[in-house]
Amino acid sequence: MKTIEDLKRVKEQALEKMKLRQLTEGVQIVVGMGTCGIAAGAREVMEAILDELDKRHLTDVTVSQTGCIGLCAKEPLVDVIVPGKKPVTYGLVTPMKARQIVAQHVVNGQPVLEWVINVKK
């Protein structure tokens, strides 16, 4: 950074990324970040989700994390919660799968059925 404008640009980019982690009325994505999830690659999955949302300029999606929910064998876990629909849990999510979940489920409203491990009531 060489100018005040450069610093302002970095600040604006950081504020936009922070919006992704704040609660909104829109779609929510929750990544399991317990120790079992982290060991299975949840950090990379979270990074892929945030990157894909950023590439698509989706700022109305909330991304958060949760601890272990007891399905360690299915980690990394990702929940997609769309208002008015039942929450969907994906298991064994990789960064590539996470990007496709954003594209197909979050953007187009179609869950990726072959990766779904649970649809909550």
What gross morphology would you assign? globular
| Integer-rounded radius of gyration | 15 Å
Side by side, the strands of the main sheet go: 2-1-3-4-5
Give a quick account of the main beta sheet: strands, pairing sense, barrel closure. 5 strands, mixed
Description:
The chain has helices at 4-19, 35-40, 42-55, 95-107, and strands spanning 28-32, 62-66, 78-81, 88-90, 116-119. It is of the alpha+beta class. The chain has a single domain, classed as Glutaredoxin (3-Layer(aba) Sandwich), CATH 3.40.30.10. Strand 3 (78-81) and strand 4 form a beta hairpin. Helix 3 (42-55) crosses helix 4. The longest helix has 16 residues, at 4-19. The chain starts with a helix and ends with a strand. The mean pLDDT is 89.
SSE diagram, text form:
Blueprint: H1 4-19, E1 28-32, H2 35-40, H3 42-55, E2 62-66, E3 78-81, E4 88-90, H4 95-107, E5 116-119
Parallel strand pairs: 1-2
Antiparallel strand pairs: 1-3, 3-4, 4-5
Please outline what is shown here:
With 121 residues, the chain is α+β, with helices and mostly antiparallel strands. The protein has helices at 4-19, 35-40, 42-55, 95-107, and strands at 28-32, 62-66, 78-81, 88-90, 116-119.
